[in-house]
Structure prediction request, 366 residues.
Amino acid sequence: MKEKKIVIVGAGIVGVTLAWFFATYSDAEVTLLDQKQAGSGVSQHSFAWLNVSYGRPDSYQKLRSKSLNEWRRLDAEMHGALKIDWRGAISWQETNAETLQFIQSHSELSFNVESLTKENLAKKEPLLDKAPNVVAFAGEEGAIDPIWVIQTLLQDAIKKGVTYCPETEVSKILQNESGQTIGVRSQDKDYVADKVVLTAGVVNKDLLQTINIELPLASLPAIIIRFKHEKSDQFAQHIISTPEMEIRSIDSEHFLAAEDYIDDTAVNTPELIALNALKTIQAHFNTIAPALASSITVDHVAVGMRPIPFDDMPIVGTMNDDSGLYLISMHAAVTLAPLISRLAMQEILYEQESPELFSYRITRFQ
Ligand SMILES: Cc1cc2nc3c(=O)[nH]c(=O)nc-3n(C[C@H](O)[C@H](O)[C@H](O)COP(=O)(O)OP(=O)(O)OC[C@H]3O[C@@H](n4cnc5c(N)ncnc54)[C@H](O)[C@@H]3O)c2cc1C
Prediction:
């Protein structure tokens, strides 16, 4: 049987993970194109928390929960090379009642979230002194270093036969007379394929516009801040997510915070938001460790454009009647990358639809 030719457009967390699955589980001939370098899109700015999420449809939370297992499986297949940080997440909501509801809703989905007593919280986060009476702990959640994971999977995929082409910007989707996609064009070179997979993050929308498809996708900014402190890992020994802050340490000298982007006025620049976040973080640690808290500094601030479908749910699958074109557009793509990549690979290879992806077709918007 002829091997399938697959062209993947965009080497972010999604495109690289998908390329790795094809390289590992199939004989497909895979070419992975990126306009710059792998990881140079929004993935590099991600908080990269692998989480189940909250307040979404049960089936979607289950999908995310399943993807956490898929991360474990992927890392096992990579012999631990992905270095996933499985320290778990401490969180609370605006009110104790909401936190209890959060704990209960996760338990109903058989996802392990426990309530922490004050003593248990103090053991887990000894420097944290500002917390409500009811606090949740999701011990099965984790985080990745997206750049490390992208590079590690990419190198393995290349070793297994994937052709990786950086600095290759796709400008056109090539279609035959019957409107079937047959490849893509970059500069003056055509890449012919049995299946083109779009994993170009927010740029998926522009690429689809060139063939008159309107993708219901918003590009929404969010801010990632890296803080420096010589004892960073003491501040956040777990992922900590509260209505006021979201932080996690990434090594002994740095921790990350994710913040909402408000607007582009002079009072809400990412740098000013970073300084406000610093004050909030210091306030959470000030009583127990005032000297340590006061010596945290802002190290780096960046804004990432998140690809968010209009209803927040992933858009995955073959595009309408065009069997040559497959799309993956999703937020929380770091959490979902391995599961969606495995399912997408199976759909593309065997032309068989996965029931787990039925709710996530673009046709739901029509
Ligand atoms: C502050 C912040 C916090 C976040 N926190 C989380 C979190 O905790 N958990 C989570 O799961 N998600 C989180 N996200 C969202 C997550 O980062 C994204 O959903 C994910 O990175 C999207 O990955 P992607 O591969 O689809 O896109 P990208 O990483 O943008 O990759 C797309 C790639 O396509 C390439 N490309 C674009 N156009 C072209 C073209 N024309 N030709 C060729 N190549 C092209 C780009 O160069 C890029 O490398 C966060 C995002 C931000 C900004």
